Amino acid sequence: MRVVTLLPSATEIVYALGVEPVGVSHECDYPPAAREQPSVNSSRVDPEASSSEINEQVAEAESGDGVYAIDRETLAAVEPDVVITQGVCDVCAVDHVQVAQAVEEEGIDAEVLTLDVHSLDDLFDSIHRVGAAIGRDERAVEYVTELRERVAAVETTAARATESPTMAVLDWIDPVMVAGHWVPEMVELGGGVYGMAERGEHSRPREWEDVREYDPDVVVAAPCGFDVAQTRENLTDLTDRDGFDDLSAVQTDRAYVMDGHHFVNRSGPRLVDTVEYLAALLHPDLFDAPPRDAVVELPTVRA
Prior knowledge:
The chain is of the alpha/beta class. The protein contains 14 helices and 11 strands. β6 and β7 form a beta hairpin. The chain is globular, with a radius of gyration of 19 Å.
């Protein structure tokens, strides 16, 4: 089975099910072997720019030819049987309409499988769908069972907590955006309260005053596409805001930076890791601390 994956989460799913893709997106970097595969698309946005500059570039690209371009020559050359894309966000990865058009116009005999994940159940369903499409049904069932058991273990442990801290996860910092989709559900599974977005709701810009008024017990900066180091470079976009130092989370040293690129914005199997990490930030007395390549305390980043 020759599979092309046009988003990092799908690449992780395919590898987890025991198939190596013949083509990937320019952002696919996990597992490390994915970096060695041909890239069949590119971005019109500079990922190394500042958060505000990226925001401007995205707006400009969306009003033009789109954020992503498909390398049709490479896509045809790898001769896929299945091409996996997404319908969640035009900024996160190449859109399924653009992919279907390229496949049709290039005369490629391939199934286009579109993933549309807004919750953990959507993720687990996507793993089953990918498994069916690439002939790995049995492994998909086993894998989803393993992931569900880990989520259930977090929920069981979190139920022992005597309090439910409020949390805000920011998946962009200039402008400020509060993470939606699967994030509210994950915070609640970890024993927290997520009062700035509903389960499944799209991430969207918020007024900074709304964040200050909410005044979360725990705040996590996890910009989309940024790892911890890149967030550090842009951190003043958040920390220089009026009243940031007065937030309860900052006053009590419960402000963190998380690798958004790998653990928050990517709707793949490692969202289950993120459930565990968020639970640990909410209830450090009940869970092991997250690895430092995934989460660091804000004071450490400032130093």
